[in-house]
Design goal:
This protein is an all-alpha fold. 55% of the residues lie in helices and 0% in strands.
Length: 137
């Protein structure tokens, strides 16, 4: 691990550097560390820009979004939907009809309730410290 941090800005050079590092077999947490950012922030940054952090050994360009084992996704969803520690209800969150429709569609694809999807999303944002990545666009 190097003490020298690379400058992390949304530039073509940084996006290409991330793609190159992935092609060279570098793992996401190591890439994030090289830039001095959290892995969660890097994942969100790459997701918004359709950059895959999955390593591919065949030398081919990785797909924009790779699909994984559905059972693994279901297990992860189930893990994230379990409350941790003391639970408090967050009620009265208002969203527009367009957002509600998108939540319904995604919840349906994942086989969870809208409330479960919202809970998993908020937990992921808080756990991976994605507030800055999401809110400071």
């Amino acid at each position: 691990m190097s003490d020298r941090r690379l400058e992390f800005r949304d530039t073509r050079e940084v996006r290409e550097d991330i793609r190159r590092r992935v092609r060279d077999g570098q793992r996401g947490p190591d890439i994030a560390d090289a830039y001095g950012i959290s892995y969660g922030y890097l994942r969100n940054f790459c997701s918004q820009r359709q950059i895959s952090l999955l390593a591919h050994n065949d030398g081919a360009e990785p797909p924009k979004f790779a699909t994984g084992d559905d059972r693994a996704v279901e297990r992860l969803d189930a893990q994230r939907s379990r409350p941790r520690g003391r639970v408090q209800q967050l009620a009265g969150v208002l969203v527009g009809n367009d957002v509600l429709q998108l939540l319904k569609q995604e919840a349906g694809r994942r086989g969870v309730s809208i409330q479960g999807l919202a809970t998993m999303t908020l937990e992921a944002v808080a756990t991976d410290d994605l507030f800055r990545a999401i809110l400071d666009r």
